[in-house]
Specification:
Blueprint lengths: L1 E7 L2 E8 L2 E7 L5 E9 L4 E2 L8 E5 L3 H7 L13 E5 L4 E2 L5 E3 L6 E3 L1 E7 L8 H4 L3 E9 L3 H6 L5 H5 L4 E8 L8 E6 L2 E7 L7 H11 L7 E3 L6 E3 L4 E6 L3 E9 L7
Length: about 260
Amino acid sequence: MKLARFQHEDQIRHGVVIDDALWSISGDIFDDFEVGSRFAPLADVRLLPPVAPQSIVAVGINYPRRVTQHYAAAPGEERYHGPVIFLLPTSSVIGHLDPIIFPPQAQEIVAAGELVVVMQKRTKAVSPDEAAAHILGYTCGNDLASPDLLRADRNQTLRAHGFDTATIMGPYIETDLAPDHLTISLRINGTLATEGSTASMIYAVPEIVSYVSQFMTLYPGDAIFMGTPMGSPVVAGDVVEVEIDGIGYLRNPVIAAPRLSND
């Protein structure tokens, strides 16, 4: 089942996507709900990020190619031992078709297609075997980052990953999906830039959910970005598309930051 969060006539609602239309639901998508009648064509609504999370957790360096890239010039003792975890600000979140604004303080930004886990219930100190029962589903993610800001800030992630419009989710949450062997494709202007499979993740979804839940409580609607197989640079004027098997595609144009008037 594909769940969507959307805006229609100034109201924000949830619905189920069936073919090219949204169907109404009654109840809570994080608890019990029923599917009602056909509500509107997808073309008549604005799709929003599928959840409004309290917390967004990101996993870094979670694919072998990223390990090779990240540690190419680093001594072995500088490598992380265990998952690399950081937080993304909720103010940076946008959805499908929303513009990515190239941050004026950065020289370069990199798009990174990722599988995103959406939590269904309050989750604290669960085991990997218990993790699946706490997950609502999965969506596409694009965790943009600025390599030059990351270097300037000595690998502190806030400016590099947390600028406005850097965290993208959508278009839907797929609730009936196994996350173990999904192809993640990143296209720039229609051309395939990178591709990988979640089968290559160093830390799988159950391990990450369990690991995070040991030190912080996850709540319904919270999101976990599971890391990227490999990113690709983008510039203003590009159109970025992330596609994941069974979920769909997440598309966003990149635009230059508007100039601030001195008037």
